[in-house]
Amino acid sequence: MGRPDLEAGLREIREDRLHGATHLAERALQLLLEASRALADLEAEEFVASAACLARELASARPAMAAVANAVCEAYALFLQGLRRCRAHPSRMLALAAHRVLRRSASKRRLAALKAAAHLKGTVITLSHSGSLALALARAPGVDQVYVAEGRPLLEGRNLAMELSAAGKAVALITEAQMRLMAERCTLAAVGADAVLADGSVVNKVGSHLLALVARDAGIPFLVVADTAKVAPRELVWGEDLMEAHPAEEVWGAAPEGIHAVNYYFERVPAPLVEAVITERGPLGEGDLLRVVEMRSRYRDLLFRHSGASPRPTRA
């Protein structure tokens, strides 16, 4: 595998429309592993420069999905730590760092699902597809039924419905337009997250803010299941320009002349609408959130400042 293959992997992460933040974070780490092999014949100094360049590209690939940049920045911090402590070729250090973050991430995800399962009870309404939430719902003994909004335009909610049905849960698939109607029958609303921002707000699939408003109107709590890999550095600032606009054809394949379909993927749920963010540590308190935010910012600074690059504020 050479640089063209790494470029193809990077392009795959940028263009992926089917998978969530956790999957793409894992793919980014796998790409660092592939780079540790593909670039191993470079001299140490050139390898370090090439690894830093790839890591910055990966960390910038999907700004709204904090887990992608977080995973890459954490692996790069461990990579630098390894370089200081060991005289082995840096390709070995990069591989060890990526493997370590992969293991940490898997452990956090499983533990967050277990913690969340204890908070999920009765009849739950959700939207789209979240791997962490799917695992939590499947493992929650107190969940009787799940209403899953389908998640237009790609209908990924159907995948969640099938996963939960296979796990033995009673599932009803609904359109987003039915969320308020069905919320009357539910105990709580729950979603995953692509990012948890420093102010406690949450970035997730479009429709999540609507579901949070529906939950408030119906008098039920709105919970978010997301491990701390989703907590964004302080530089991640919400902005309309990075809601990820995608092809209009996904909404209407052959729209008549004069009609333009709008297709944004992400929106922000304000913190006051969020009852709790359930992580591998349990419900995330304000103090814990800020500590994780600062840690993520330090990792980000290492990647972008180590080579003299300036870490620009990122809108999510």
3D structure, described in words:
- The chain has 10 helices and 12 strands.
- With 316 residues, the protein is α/β, with parallel strands linked by helices.
- It folds into 2 domains: 128 residues, Up-down Bundle (Four Helix Bundle (Hemerythrin (Met), subunit A)); 183 residues, Translation initiation factor eif-2b, domain 2 (Rossmann fold).
- A hairpin with a 5-residue loop joins β5 and β6.
- α1 runs antiparallel to α2, α2 packs antiparallel against α3 and α2 runs parallel beside α4.
- The longest helix has 28 residues.
- It is globular, with a radius of gyration of 20 Å.
Can I get a quick summary?
The protein has 316 residues and is an alpha/beta fold.
List the keywords.
316 residues, alpha/beta, Four Helix Bundle (Hemerythrin (Met), subunit A), Rossmann fold, seven-stranded mixed beta sheet, three-stranded antiparallel beta sheet, 10 helices, 12 strands
Give the full name of the CATH homologous superfamily of the largest domain: Translation initiation factor eif-2b, domain 2
CATH hierarchy: architecture of the largest domain: 3-Layer(aba) Sandwich
The termini sit apart by 32 Å
Note the quaternary state here: single chain
Backbone structural class: alpha/beta
Order of helices and strands: HHHHHEHEHEHEEEHEEEEEHE
Instruction: Specify Rg, calculated over alpha carbons.
Output: 20 Å
Query: Can you tell me the CATH class of the largest domain?
Result: Alpha Beta
User: Poorly predicted ranges (pLDDT <50, ≥5 residues)?
Assistant: 308-313
Total of domains: 2
Mean pLDDT: 93
How many individual helices?
Answer: 10
- Give the overall silhouette: globular
The major pleated sheet works out as:
7 strands, mixed
Instruction: Give the neighbour order of strands across the main sheet.
Output: 3-2-1-4-7-10-11
| Helix percent band | 40-55%
Please report the total strand number as a whole number.
Answer: 12
**Percent of sequence in beta strands:** 5-15%
CATH topology of the largest domain: Rossmann fold
